[in-house]
Design goal:
By secondary structure, the protein is an alpha+beta fold. The protein has one domain. It contains one helix and 15 strands. The strands form five sheets. It has a five-stranded antiparallel beta sheet, covered by helices on one side. Strands 10, 13, 14 and 15 form a four-stranded antiparallel beta sheet that branches. It is elongated and about 110 Å long.
């Protein structure tokens, strides 16, 4: 009796390979599209977050000097919008408290008052610390009142760009505006705009704050 030997076919056919390839391509394409979309969203959010943090930090770092300021002097043209000088109280170091304290004097009527000290100058400048209308940094310079010597200079923010245009003037809003009238408590309005880029996603954020000179 003749026995039949059945051989099982091993492997796949070309149509099956093509079908599997098409399915795999669709799956990979979908995953890639979702990943790229999520990555773009993340880069956009990161750019906005960093820009906001940088602008906010720049404004906040000026507040202590502005609060204790005795007087404010905006820079002369053409730097009036990007540079401001704050007169600080004179200070002496108290070893017992381990801190610098304001120096006081008494007038003819027996009333105490703060003695004038050095100047804290804030301005927009370039990478070398020179004042510039198009600079991308904000600098703080401590200037000795007696001879104008620079005691300390530090950068407090980078990636700075022009503020949004003020519709009333058609020009970018000034970085510093001093309000000398008593109705605004002799305050300084600070507006800073920072720009950040991550993954070819650029975001610009503007922060604004107004601080009254409590010692004025």
């Amino acid at each position: 009796m003749r026995q039949r030997i059945h051989q099982r076919r091993i492997g796949v056919t070309l149509p099956e390979v093509l079908a599997a390839t098409m399915v795999l391509s669709v799956v990979v394409g979908s995953v890639s599209a979702i990943y790229n979309s999520a990555l773009r969203t993340w880069y956009t959010g990161a750019s906005e977050n960093y820009a906001q943090q940088k602008a906010s930090l720049a404004v906040q770092r000026m507040v202590p000097d502005l609060q204790q300021g005795l007087s404010v002097t905006p820079a002369s043209s053409p730097y009036g919008a990007i540079c401001i000088a704050v007169r600080l109280p004179a200070k002496t170091y108290d070893s017992g408290q381990g801190a610098y304290l304001n120096q006081l004097a008494v007038d003819a009527e027996g009333k105490p008052y703060l003695l004038q000290g050095d100047w804290a100058v804030y301005y927009r400048g370039n990478q070398y610390g020179h004042i510039s209308l198009t600079g991308d940094r904000i600098w703080r310079r401590l200037v000795r009142s007696s001879d104008g010597a620079i005691l300390k200079q530090q950068m407090i923010a980078d990636s700075i760009v022009d503020n949004p245009v003020d519709p009333s003037t058609g020009n970018p809003k000034p970085m510093f505006i001093y309000w000398p009238d008593i109705y605004r408590l002799r305050s300084v309005e600070v507006t800073v705009t920072a720009e950040e880029e991550h993954g070819h996603r650029t975001a610009t954020k503007t922060m604004n704050g107004e601080t009254a000179l409590r010692n004025n």
